Amino acid sequence: MLDHEFSTTLLTWFDHHGRKHLPWQQQATPYRVWVSEIMLQQTQVNTVIPYYQRFMQRFPTVAALAEADDDTVLHHWAGLGYYARARNLHKTAQLVLQQYAGKFPETIELLIALPGIGRSTAGAIIALGTHQRGVILDGNVKRVLSRVFCVEGWPDQPKVQEKLWHYADSLTPVERCADYTQAIMDLGATLCSRSKPACPLCPLSVLCQANQSNRTAEFPHKKPTKVLPIKSTFMLIFHNQIEQQVLLEKRPPQGIWGSLWSFPETADISSFDPALHSQLMLDNNSTRQWPSVRHTFSHFHLDITPVLIPLSKGHISIMENERWHWYDLRQPAELGLAAPIKKLLSKLAAL
Ligand code: SF4
Fold this sequence. Notes:
Elements: H1 2-17, H2 30-40, H3 45-58, H4 62-67, H5 70-77, H6 84-100, H7 108-112, H8 119-130, H9 139-148, H10 158-171, H11 177-189, H12 209-212, E1 230-240, E2 245-250, E3 261-262, E4 265-266, H13 274-279, E5 288-289, E6 293-296, E7 301-310, E8 324-328, H14 339-349
Parallel strand pairs: 1-7
Antiparallel strand pairs: 1-2, 1-4, 2-3, 2-8, 5-7, 6-7
Helix pairs in contact: 1-11, 2-3, 2-8, 8-11, 9-10, 9-11
This protein binds iron/sulfur cluster.
Iron/sulfur cluster is lined by residues 144, 147-148, 191-192, 197-199, 202, 204-205, 208, 210-211, 216.
């Protein structure tokens, strides 16, 4: 029977070649598995490992994460991108603490009701964190199954997903479900890679329809391409050179870089707030524009033009509060900063 043959073949391969030393595989708990799964969405294993280790050191339990403040959580996430993941992680930790006394629920339905947990992440938490039967369908698994069964269509289309979930569910065994889950993820991450699958080394080579018909390059089908729109903004870097401080503004919780700290922005430099302008005693002659940098989000490009504005003496009439922060370049506070902001601050500190 194909299902049985598929899982036993994969498990035998896993016993010899699977990954067993990833940090989240050690003392695996639903909490540790959950954090790793969220970090691994859109991000490679090697990039995630140091972030994961720092995160676990700072937030070893769901309670430690729930009780931390927003800025500390975002600071430990900064650089991984897709910050909604960090905000959801924080919210979910608080809900798990309040509603489930710090213990993750163990059913798919209750797990997917928590912010940021989809069906596949819920399946991974159950399979890898509790060793019960759970089914996953992450990017690696989608690629393997699309090839093994020559599944036509872009895997994120609802109809195609449905088909892939059907295969994923029917192939996942009850026995050794955690190992099977790790095995299929490992196969996708190592042999069944995106551009050059190593089919001659693959334990599924005989079962794999794409390999048998010489069509591995066709699967999974590519996402229909679309041209991303371009937006632009000026980021205003108010720099007190004497105190080595820079003015940062907290972004609203919704939208890009939600709740992270950034520079004040304006889409039109000529219309920049005149009140703030005079309050800061700006010397227009000394402002300088830096070359624009492009940051690409999933749905648009953002062209950022930094404008360096050195401040005159006695400028600090903007008080720190929940919205404004004077960031000390010599002794920086632990704040959530998006990657391009971090880069600009490093450039400034090196001037
Ligand atoms: S035979 Fe090739 S394409 Fe098929 S699952 Fe294995 S590595 Fe992937």
